[in-house]
Amino acid sequence: MSKLKDKLQEKIEAWRPRTTALLKKAGDVKLGDVTIGMAIGGARGVKCLVTDISYLDPQEGIRFRGFTIPETLQKLPKVPGSDMPYVEGFLYLLLTGDVPTKADAEEVAGELKARAAVPQYVFDVLRAMPRDTHPMTMLSAAILCMQRDSIYVKRYNEGLGKNDHWDPTYEDAMNLLARLPEIGAYIFRMKYRADTPIAPDPKLDWGGNFAHMMGVPQPYDDVSRLYFILHSDHESGNVSAHTGHLVASALSDVYYSASAMINGLAGPLHGLANQEVLRWIQGVMEKMGGKIPTEEEMGKFVWDTLESGQVVPGFGHAVLRKTDPRYMEQRNFCLKHLPNDPIFKYVDLLFKVVPPILEKQGKAKNPWPNVDAQSGVIQWYYGVREYDFYTCLFGIGRALGVMCNIIWDRALGYPIERPKSVTTAMLEEVAAKAEAAAKK
Ligand code: AMX
């Protein structure tokens, strides 16, 4: 067994009694109420999911295993010669809750390298798809076709005790994570770089190897490490994480769940927003003939978008009620590496102009920028200009969090998900009763 898996087993065995005790002693204790607005509004704010991998505070933003983003980046061991941590060390933190040493991170890096070989049939499947297929469809299909290799399915069919489900799930999850950078970079080079894939370099770490296979020079390795860490997890209720959890709750293996989570991420209100931001900015740049607008001019473009019934991409959030710390971390990166880039200047101006306008309009509950308002500009600057690919980067990062969650779901024996639905007539009846009671 790997050191990481040993450590995980210890953690799981220590954790299980907590979940069992809660269910036994406090299973009937109320967590909150559900209103009609919450039911119609996409289960918004309904507390009915459990995860210990990350927690999203509306004011403070995400904490990974209790650490804010700046704390996470500061505490994790750095790749030699780089400003950013090993993604492998971050995976160790997400899985175990402990901050790894450099040796721990390198051990995980070794484990992933040993699992990294992508089967030839994955490339064959990708090559058989029409070349203009969306890269998210390709990524989802590449993941799904590896389902035939699932160790979980094999062990399940042989007969698997409930406490052992996490073990083959770990094997599948680590195999999938190990292969994702090469699959992602292969899709990119096949589609957008005249079909010139670059072979992996076994000396490099997970993030560094991805940058190498993309064919983008330094500091794109640090961009990749930062991007994957920032996009990894945002607690369980967002569409991609929730989809991954939901599918896995039927004891579908991680290939089925990861492919489904990629499909959820592909929507314009979720992962696709980063490309929408760039598209919107470049539309304004074209109208401005490349000049940087004044605050008033930019304000007019923002109002025009709102008045035409569209959303301002990169702003607002379903849970956050302040500037996304993932935005701030990428902003800091831009201030250090590309302060004079014209697109960054637009992003910077939007940071000033959009929030007061959204506040004035009074619809968006959160007028502040989210992660997507910053990520496209960095990719564009380093020559990754094919918007459609941006969500694949998000998906590779998000797989880290989703895989950790599924391993723990299995470890703690979370059951199949089954929320209850009601009819519109039932809601009307509840509403009428509440109205009558209020009149009495
Ligand atoms: N521009 C204009 N209007 C906005 C807005 C924005 N950026 N954000 C929210 N609103 C509007 C909503 O469309 C909604 O209008 P409606 O009542 O007419 O339907 C109203 O404000 C209330 O919405 P909300 O409760 O504040 O947001 P939500 O939870 O329904 O949606 C989100 C959240 C992110 C989908 C929304 O803010 C949005 O569409 N933002 C722009 C797209 C974007 O940046 N998405 C990326 C999110 C991060 C991610 O998942 N990657």
Strand content: under 5%
Shape estimate: globular
The count of helical stretches stands at: 20
Average pLDDT, rounded to a whole number, is 96
The low-confidence parts are none
| DSSP strand tally | 3
Q: Order of SSEs, N→C? A: HHEEEHHHHHHHHHHHHHHHHHH
Cα end-to-end separation: 67 Å
- CA gyration radius, whole angstroms: 23 Å
Small-molecule components bound: amidocarboxymethyldethia coenzyme *A
Strand order of the largest sheet: 1-2-3
Structural class: mainly alpha
State the major sheet.
3 strands, antiparallel
Helix content: 55-70%
Oligomer: single chain
Protein architecture, described:
The chain has helices at 3-26, 36-40, 69-75, 87-96, 102-114, 120-128, 135-145, 151-158, 166-192, 206-214, 220-230, 239-249, 254-265, 273-287, 295-307, 325-337, 342-361, 372-381, 390-411, 424-439, and strands at 54-57, 61-64, 67-68. With 440 residues, the protein is an all-alpha fold. The protein has a three-stranded antiparallel beta sheet. α6 (120-128) runs antiparallel to α7 (135-145), α11 crosses α19 (390-411) and α15 (295-307) packs across α17. Amidocarboxymethyldethia coenzyme *A binds at residues 269-271, 273, 306, 311-318, 363-366, 370-372.
List keywords for this structure.
60% helix, binds amidocarboxymethyldethia coenzyme *A, 440 residues, globular
Question: Secondary-structure blueprint of this entry?
Answer:
Layout: H1 3-26, H2 36-40, E1 54-57, E2 61-64, E3 67-68, H3 69-75, H4 87-96, H5 102-114, H6 120-128, H7 135-145, H8 151-158, H9 166-192, H10 206-214, H11 220-230, H12 239-249, H13 254-265, H14 273-287, H15 295-307, H16 325-337, H17 342-361, H18 372-381, H19 390-411, H20 424-439
Antiparallel strand pairs: 1-2, 2-3
Bound molecules: amidocarboxymethyldethia coenzyme *A (AMX).
